[in-house]
Structure prediction request, 174 residues.
Amino acid sequence: MIPLSNPWGYVVENEAPWGAFTAQKCRLLTRNRQTDTNRMTNPTILTRQGFPFAFDPAACETCEGRCCNGESGNIWVTRDESRALAHALGITPEAFARDYLKKVGYRVSIGERQEGENFACLLYDRNKGGCSAYEARPAQCRTFPFWDYFRERPHEAAAECPGVILDESCPDHR
Prediction:
């Protein structure tokens, strides 16, 4: 489970298998972010080497789970992650597996529900505007938007996530 002292789940000091995140102070200039008082009071953003953008985790507070909705896809989970998610929801691992997981080939993914033309993660709580098990979300969710897919598509990342910052003043954004 992610410690409460690190609710965003980002690795800042220790290298993780998917690469470490680095906290940076950068100017928040793009897409009219200079008018957002929340970002102006908390200018610490995250970068990941090799990615041409940064991420402002404060945007999650007002985003309402755009990363949890959209095209159909898979959110891969490990056995340990599924146990942590079950614990966070207050259900047994068996109930979580039955109600929330699907097998895709040799892997396991959190299921999704269709909502109109889009899909939503089964853990997405529309009333809350976010993940029903946010503190225990899997690594794939914690590392968003720093996915390999977005490495070469930074403008797609920015369109999907209001926390993505395309700013040449930040390191590693070339």
